[in-house]
Amino acid sequence: MSRVFNFSAGPAAIPLEVLTQAQEELLDFHGTGMSVMEMSHRGKVFMEVAAEVEGDFRELLAIPANYKILFLQGGGKGEFSLVPLNLLRGRNKVDYVNTGHWSAGAIKEARKYCNVSVIASSEDKNFTYVPKQTGWKTNKDAAFRHICSNETIHGVEYFWTPTIDDDVPLVADASSHILSRPVDVSKFGCIYGGAQKNIGPSGLTFVIVREDLLGGAHPFTPSVFDYTQQAANGWMLNTPPTFAVYLAGLTFKWLKAQGGLAGIEAQNIEKAKLLYQCIDESDGFYRNQVALDDRSRMNVPFFLKNETLNAKFLDGAGAAGLAGLKGHKVIGGMRASIYNAMPLAGVMVLAEFMREFQRIHG
To answer: Between vectors from CA 203 to CA 39 and to CA 247, what angle results, nearest 5°?
Structure first.
């Protein structure tokens, strides 16, 4: 078996230990004589799996008891619509901060259902920073206030939590850095995202929502996407993506074995420091344009000074066993996504390749 170091932004790398265990259990899950993806989601065995998955997720993030956890479908993009449908609660105004491509996507969808105030934006500098909260022009009568706490394309991450002093619930799209470090869930009304970065395979979506925000979904909201109905039915109003839930559970166990979120954060800090140091010490051969304090630990976009070398860089990286480094079409260049499952060894190989490529072509 020959596996590459996968730097794809998502679907992304899954810990090898998780894949190995899933492989071992694929045909016969715990003596049942069938795969976990074949069994009834209402059966005793899977119900026990589901309860353990939810419990481990709650434990890892220290999610308070007054928050519901939902494992749904539709991806992060689906939640761009489902958040306003569920959380407007009869109101017609919301606040959004625009820090890049995914913030803009959320804003576009929300405008189908309500009036959106863009209370701050970093578009003036090509989305290379997080706007300071002191400059936000908030609305006290907004139904909620939305941020994308890590932008995968532009490589911008919040390392602080906005302060809410007007009772407007804070909502975060945390798709691309959930479980990468501890977070105080109690400061948010809702946290959501797709699973395909740090949790498991695509097809699974998580929603963490405070109980007092439930009960006011728009009448047009499909039942399977109504947070209140799903919470009342243990997120099994419809058949959930059972195999994805199972794999998420294996990932949660793996994370606990890494020392939980404090342990994995230490690893992520080390990986990001190594890669950014390689970029910063290249004398401009490579460059990252994000403000130093806002550089994402999960997604590191960078550009070659001579962009005619892009294809040669990617070909060489592929030959070295480094996959998924092509930047998103929105901004081009390169991007290394170094999620939880990316080992330090993979970042070390990438940094070594980058230095050798510079030596040859610089």
So the answer is: 55
